[in-house]
Amino acid sequence: MIVIKGISASPGIAIGKAYVVEDEDIVVERVNISRERIREEVARFKAAQKATLRDLDAAEQKVLKVLGKQHAKLIDAHRLILKDSLITSDVPKRIVDECVNAEFALSEALEAVNRQFEKMDDEFFRERRHDLFDVGKRLLLHLMKRQKKSLADIDHECILISRNLLPSDTLSLKETKIIGFATDLGGKTSHTAILAQSLEIPAVVGLSDVSRRIKTGDMVILDGEQGMVIIAPGPETVAKYEKVQQRSLAEEKSLEGLRGLPTVTMDGRGFRLETNLDSPDELKNVVALQSDGIGLFRTEYLFLNRTDVPSEDEQTKAYVAVVKAMDGREVVIRTADIGGDRLSQLGIEGPKNETNPFMGLRGVRLFLRHLDLFKTQLRAVLRASTKGKVRVMIPMVSSVGEVVAARRLLEQAQAELAAEGVEFKEEIELGIMVEIPSAAIQIDSFLPHVDFLSIGTNDLIQYVLAVDRINEHVTHLYDPYHPAVVRLLDHVVRTAHSKGKWVSVCGEMTSDPRAVPLLVGLGVDAMSVSPRMFLRVKQAIRELKHESMKKIVAKAVTCAESDDIRRLLEQNS
Ligand code: PEP
Ligand code: MG
């Protein structure tokens, strides 16, 4: 039995036989051509380009059907690559200047860009190489008149193992019997990982040489939770994992009955239990959960994987769809938190290669630099507010001045819409994410300026503890139970309550049933949970006593070590 550790790209467990996809090497030879043939060679390249464009159109239709509009933007990104001057001008130029065949000119051009990508510090940009090669490979296959081996042809249940999996390949997995995949390459932020999560296919990436160590037909266990692959597991290990699988299926079933039941502790303290929404693809699930609302609508998906800014109409349409689907239940729309690891390719002036993007021009900081973008989003939110209950929330606030500026802009947007005769709700609540320590420490100064608060524990923890939330080397230091974190949470809740303001929490901490007793004891008013964990968290709350948890938290805030806090919670919940 061999265990290989990689990066968890999509959760879940798959047990089955491996199917190893050989990365068919396309050998491109340099062929010198005569001057007379240049025109013909360029024409051949242009024809391949057209054929590739047709491929992308067909792929787009498929994606729209299977995954919806949001993921179809990936195809747009590929189309942009195909139309980029690198392809449209550089390749013909190489054919002409060097008198070489189109295949060679193309592979040289791709290699030149690859070298640029490789030099980039930023993982997000480095990952975009895969999109480039995806398009490049399609072009080459057309030029060579070869067919791409289609994963859709795999007609039996298996775990796919390959050196890499291109985003376009990942899209076709939904139509196959592939129950999970593992790749040598890849990172957490790749399109491939994002798509695997949406498709709910367990996946582990970054396994370095897994595709050479496994042969088709080998028995493997893919553990998307821990980010590892077990080759040739012994019967005991298989039995253990099968049990885990069965347990989680049975657990999910048993939770079904909780839908629609109130979220209230055994001693009668009610909590608003809301869901986070990261992409419109999740909306149907979210609606079915019958949550109290959407406590965090992450709107970044509208701004990523594209080079143009989403228009006011496009945004309004997206927000209206969510607000309408929630049918009178509240939706907290967060203005886009672009920056950090969510780097945009929008053609706006701003940071391209920040050395420390999480400390950089992110969230409200970026939007206050680009007031036009900020105002457009606020106008769209206001327009959508007529269709239901909407609140607006500002991310990454670190000083009161930012809230004042955001409110001023909101009022400006309202005045403009009124002057244009466009409908909107005048009474819209404005809140902030409390996710930067300065805002948490100084929360009393913010309270007169905001209608509500939502604590973003994901960022708050990383900034309080100086632990990069996406850096695997310091994951062990990322600690929600650190006394400094617990004390700060307690401070925010107490101060807000003393001024009659309600507090929500929307970071991943709400989605961890082990952390729920702490949040209950802290007395937060609402929790916004990832849809997958919603019912589990509801169950955890219903099994607790608020008064007992309050006493535990009173002790926890005096602890010096997180282990003591953990122990207190474990012993008493
Ligand atoms: C957070 O920081 O806790 C949060 C919810 O925001 P995001 O994860 O989108 O940064
Ligand atoms: Mg955040």
Q: Explain this structure to me?
A:
By secondary structure, this protein is an alpha/beta fold. It folds into four domains: about 1-25 and about 150-235, Phosphohistidine domain (Glucose Oxidase, domain 1), CATH 3.50.30; about 35-145, PtsI, HPr-binding domain (Enzyme I, Chain A, domain 2, Orthogonal Bundle); about 260-270 and about 450-573, TIM Barrel, CATH 3.20.20; about 290-435, Alpha-Beta Barrel (TIM Barrel). The protein has 23 helices and 16 strands. The protein has helices spanning about 40-65, 70-85, 85-100, 100-120, 125, 130-145, 165-170, 190-200, 210-215, 235-255, 285-290, 310-325, 365-370, 370-385, 400-420, 435-440, 445, 455-465, 485-500, 515-520, 535-540, 545-555, 560-570, and strands at about 1-5, 5-10, 15-20, 160, 180-185, 205, 220-225, 230, 270-275, 295-300, 330-335, 390-395, 430-435, 450-455, 505, 525-530. Strands 1-8-7-3-4-5-6-2 form an eight-stranded mixed beta sheet. An eight-stranded parallel barrel has the order 9-10-11-12-13-14-15-16, surrounded by five helices. Helix 1 runs antiparallel to helix 2 (about 70-85). The protein starts with a strand and ends with a helix. The structure holds phosphoenolpyruvate and magnesium ion (MG). Magnesium ion binds next to helix 18.
